[in-house]
């Protein structure tokens, strides 16, 4: 019995060893070509409105900042699209071998609503009779849960606006010292006209200064501004405003645009490689970010500005404020009158990846049904891929197919073309399985690795089956270790039993001994 379990245990480690060998083989295949592929990546730069060869500031390293959500309500599918586009971009940069520092912030203060001087989080907190931080926590948790369901990678840093008030105050002081901001009645505004005397306000959005009026409505505090184009760096808090901090000018709160300038420069430097967000953030948010960074550091902060296009519903932009949106959970349950049934996160991810990130994408039940068919066809082929057998000769031009996949992604992350190439692979897989096409052992191995890495690592697709079977496997492995630990304890082999417990802890798995036996939780 004991021998059998030890054998199982060995088997498990042999499996892991096999996995590691496959990974090393994949690395071996990639190493020789990665460097040349890195050199061919082109990115559409919204600053110059053209595709440019991507040349990071530091060879082999990428700094990328993406504006995160304002956590005052559930993320809708439109928000998910933008974040998913950058998740795919992050994944491909990693796949190419770049070391990426990916910063995506959480806006938990300062994002003003269009029709009042209050920020969105404070307004929601008042409406729901909750602490602002309760609102922030509730919707940050929702954001993370949703992203996890869609199989997002975690960014390297997820800084919050409220965690960087000191830095924001410092930045305002610098901008005032540099003569580009002024204080009125406890609030501080950026002097757009003055800035525009020497710099170009409108460099990104290409708006003329006279058109660049942030809000057309006359807001309460707007009379404080010298010019309507000016924007708030610091707002004095009205008595009912809950989120408030001390500053040299008043008890108040920072303007929304400032947090991204401060957090991007803090974690990525005064000049960094990529800044992303949805198209709708280009103006005023990103235009203001450039102006603030120039005013602080006299450097144009971002080398490649990237903007994702909008997800629409019935031809109109999905949006929180108009209510024209669908929530991810409505899709997973099918509980929305626009849907004929529930859809899995994998299908939605596939649907989004079928469009280029710079194209408008319209959401409809029919489009998702079609995506589901395509997704299932791809996943069926991947299952078949594992069973394929090698031949003595090869009838497929594998090199050409592989280059087509890389060319697609190197052409400004063209996922629809990549997917077309993956369906070419589906054709090959089906033909190999019935003996009408063939690959040699070495090529078949490479083919399997490349298909899987584009589907799973780059596009981030994941089948429901795979998700459950992975967690089943984990359950099985931990149960096995618990059993071995129990036997070690019975034999008074405390060293081994402690070792199993401690090593599981380092993997984030906590064993709990109770009267009904040992259970475990995964952190
Ligand atoms: P917010 O929480 O409103 O700041 O938005 C978070 C992100 O979602 C921003 O990058 C927006 O550009 C993006 N976004 C908002 N609506 C849509 C939409 N309909 N389609 C794609 N992205 C969107
Ligand atoms: Zn931002």
Can you give keywords for this protein?
globular; 49% helix; 14% strand; binds zinc ion; four-stranded parallel sheet; Rossmann fold; 3 domains; binds adenosine monophosphate; 15 strands; disordered N terminus; four-stranded antiparallel sheet; 523 residues; 16 helices; Isoleucyl-tRNA Synthetase, Domain 1; alpha/beta
What's this, in brief?
By secondary structure, the protein is α/β, with parallel strands linked by helices. Helix content is 49%, strand content 14%.
Write the layout of secondary structure elements.
Elements: H1 2-38, E1 42-45, E2 50-53, E3 61-66, H2 77-95, E4 99-104, H3 120-128, H4 132-149, H5 165-177, E5 181-184, E6 187-190, H6 192-198, E7 231-236, E8 252-254, H7 256-268, E9 272-278, H8 282-297, E10 302-308, E11 311-313, E12 316-317, H9 328-333, H10 345-353, E13 361-363, H11 365-385, H12 398-410, H13 415-433, H14 441-458, H15 464-490, H16 494-506, E14 509-514, E15 517-522
Helix pairs in contact: 1-15, 3-4, 5-7, 7-8, 10-11, 11-13, 12-13, 15-16
Bound molecules: adenosine monophosphate (AMP) and zinc ion.
The site of zinc ion has 3 residues, from loops.
Q: Could you characterize the architecture of this molecule?
A:
With 523 residues, the protein is α/β, with parallel strands linked by helices. It has three domains: 1-30 and 479-512, no CATH class; 31-308, Rossmann fold, CATH 3.40.50; 312-467, Isoleucyl-tRNA Synthetase, Domain 1 (Orthogonal Bundle). Helix content is 49%, strand content 14%. The strands form five sheets. A four-stranded parallel beta sheet has the order 4-3-9-10, with helices on both faces. Helix 1 packs across helix 15 (464-490) and helix 7 (256-268) crosses helix 8. The model is unreliable at 1-11, 17-24 and 216-220 (pLDDT under 50). The structure holds adenosine monophosphate and zinc ion. Residues 67, 69-70, 78-79, 81-82, 277-278, 280-281, 310-311, 317-319 line the site of adenosine monophosphate. Adenosine monophosphate binds next to helix 2 and strand 9.
